[in-house]
Amino acid sequence: MASRLDQIAGHLNYPKGMLVGQTAIITGSGQGIGAEAARLFANEGARVVVADVDGKKAQDVADKINASGGKAIAVPGDVLDDNYINELVKKSAEFGGGKIHIIVNNAGFTWDGVIHKMTDKQWDTMIKVHNTAPFKIVRAAAPYFRVKDGEPRNIINISSTSGINGNAGQANYSLAKAGVVGLSKTIAKEWGPQFGVRANTVAFGYILTRLTAAKEQGAFITTPEGEKVALGIPSAQKAAPGKGEENLDIPLRRPGSATEAASAVLAVASPLFSYVNGQTIMVTGGRNM
């Protein structure tokens, strides 16, 4: 019987891609970093489940992957809905021939406000989206991760520098993004010893997405209660000293692209990171080091 090290060495030599034979759920993958991650995972041979609250965008991402020779399905829905989470896991397992190998908990948004003006709804929504939903998805998928079939399993929770360093106007988001770090470490400690599950966090800095674009561009997300939440950073704040396009507080002197961010997620999911577990990978261009 091959040793565990021999099995790992074998994973480092996938002939047709690093994720061949694996099924990956990526939440919030209808656009931005999630969509890029879906594309990159599919390019490496994964069967990708595109999960997003926007059904049209999710289907578009899946269609493009399939048209390019990859394998993907769209399972749209709201991660705050318990029924949807159960459906997502069920359909993902069916798509994967009874197996799920990777979960990327990427879905989320910001709902900013200074502490003394932040509402209970702002606070509660961020905790539900960034902490409760990932926990429930992982819990629902437990039967597909607590297995001993010799195949790699890993969970990647997406955080932010706000969760590592805090950020003015984001007490809710900062707390929530700090929380996923603890979730990743706990999964690693509970499911690593017996089942070999890896769980890591990827914390993004300034990445060019709708969350970092100018708020005046009008991007928004609608909460389950029908309330529209404006996304982005006010232009006046973006133009403040050290916050402009020069990015003087970033050693690389530029923001990252969605593709660069998604590539980091792919790296963590890949066999190249087979001995990295319970860690927080900072993808910031050197900011806050």
From TrEMBL:
The reaction(s) catalysed by this protein are:
a (3R)-hydroxyacyl-[ACP] + NADP(+) = a 3-oxoacyl-[ACP] + NADPH + H(+)
Top EC class of this enzyme: oxidoreductase
User: MF terms per GO, please?
Assistant: 3-oxoacyl-[acyl-carrier-protein] reductase (NADPH) activity
Could you list this entry's UniProt keywords, alphabetically sorted: NADP
**Enzyme Commission number, as recorded:** 1.1.1.100
Would I find Zinc-finger among this entry's keywords? no
Protein family: Belongs to the short-chain dehydrogenases/reductases (SDR) family.
Question: What protein am I looking at?
Answer: 3-oxoacyl-[acyl-carrier-protein] reductase
Q: What is the lineage of its organism?
A: Eukaryota, Fungi, Dikarya, Ascomycota, Pezizomycotina
